[in-house]
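Quick one, tokens below. Sequence please?
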């Protein structure tokens, strides 16, 4: 991935420095001025759902798409694993166990599919 990158070039280091400063500035804003700003209760309640929405936006396309097509088939191992993991989470309410369970189901399904 970085094989063709010339690490001795100044513009590479300037880009890295600018990205570090931008990341630090955006992530530390609430830490620096957080006690001076009060977020309305309704917005604070809505922000509770942001991580779940972001996770769904990342995972759903990978689970449901095959190339450029939506793939709702029983042969879609990612979809089956996602359904199993969702059911597991509804029962157990433990995110770490759900991730491990979903990956175990996916691995098991892949192994069954390979050996058929």
């Amino acid at each position: 991935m970085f094989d063709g990158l010339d690490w001795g070039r100044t513009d590479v280091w300037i880009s890295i420095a600018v990205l570090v400063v931008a990341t630090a500035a955006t992530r530390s804003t609430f830490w620096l001025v957080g006690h001076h700003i009060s977020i309305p209760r309704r917005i604070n309640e809505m922000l509770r759902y942001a991580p779940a929405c972001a996770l769904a936006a990342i995972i759903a396309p990978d689970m449901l798409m095959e190339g450029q097509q939506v793939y709702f088939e029983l042969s879609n191992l990612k979809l089956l694993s996602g359904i199993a993991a969702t059911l597991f989470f509804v029962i157990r309410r433990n995110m770490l166990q759900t991730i491990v369970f979903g990956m175990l189901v996916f691995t098991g399904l892949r192994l069954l599919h390979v050996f058929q």
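The two ends are 35 Å apart (CA to CA). The chain is about 70% helix and 5% strand.
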